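Our platform keeps sequence and structure together, in a single record for each protein. Such a record has a labelled line for the sequence and another for the backbone structure tokens. Nothing more is needed to write down the fold, since each code stands for a local backbone conformation. For reference, a complete record is included directly beneath this paragraph:
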Amino acid sequence: MILIEKGYELLVKLLTTLKINGTLAHYLSELILILGLLIIAIGLYYLLKLIYLKGIVKLFSKQKKEWLKEILNSPIMMVSFQLIFIIIFFKVIVSLPLLYDLFKIILILYLTFITIRILNSFLNLINDLYMKYHKHAKDKPIKGLISASKFILFTIILIVAIANLIGQSPVYILTGLGAISAVLLLVFKDPLLGLVGGFQMAANETIKIGDWIEMPKYNADGEVIDISLAFVKVLNWDKTTVAIPTHLMASDAFINWRDILDKNARRLKKFLNIDINSVRFLSDEEIEEFKKVEIIKDYLTTRKKEIDNSNQVNNVDTTIEINGRRMTNLGLFRVYILEYLKKNVHIRKDMLLVVRQLQTTNNGIPLEIYAFINTPFLRDYEEIAADIFDHLIAAIGHFNLNIYQQPSGTDFKKQH
């Protein structure tokens, strides 16, 4: 500081010899000193940057540890160099009384900006390292927690900066904030709700990056690609992006297909509408003919014996079809579907597999297939499902059944 004071006195004398007297000479002397120091600081900054990039970074870049390279290439060090010079400037301007107040404000504002940048870079680095190298990163992302930390830390920094600018204690600022808390809650409503919602989602593990979710209310049907303090971003299957406020994910209902994806399976739930008029009993001759179908041969043999024994024990007159027990073409087709699915390599045998009749409607008898295909991927799933139903639609005629189909214009033309 003695050097600064001597330089200041020398500049005042020099300006006086140039017939610049009084306060103006003092102002100009301080300004010249500050500009000179600024030029030196900029030069030193770029020198340190060169040493860091060409020396330290280049030296450690030969290391095989990727996380170390991530740290060295982060902007934290570059910004930290500026922080050193700000601290030096604070020491210098104390010796310059005329411009002290002005440059104090400038330095406080710049220090606030630099501190926020350093913290932001540091927290981003933590998030990047966690996402790349932690084994539970996908299941438990910390971006929401990082965003919450930024919000809290940046708020504290701004309060301290404002307190220094107005020459008051931070407690005084907080007291003032209490008086306008209602306004602040209104302004920061979404971030605060997002913070709470983020903690709830993290604690309950209701949603993770990579999950497939459906939220029809917000036209969301796709993969979660980002979770932040403010929004959950969903990339829909049609490649559109939906941003849903984070707090709504904790309060509104949505479907998460994670468990199905984790089990490498996807549900198949479709039905065929059977024409009621095509349903009938099977004759013994037809049953014998159907025994040629390999996948239902054993079933028919066992079932036929069971029905014949039951009718014989109960002394049933089998000359009339509706007496006693008989097999129907619809019942046999249902068994055929079940056996066909059991033989299909793409159907999960360890998960629920059901073929059932639903309530009869104006469109016939719905015969529903409920199974799980061994892939979560849409394209593969649709191809497998289509192959299954192609086969069943082609096979249904062999059971003398018809698929119900509403009359079209062509059907009416044929009648005439």
Summary: The CA atoms of residues 66 and 133 lie 9 Å apart. Residues 2-133 form one domain. Residues 22-60 form the longest helix (39 residues).
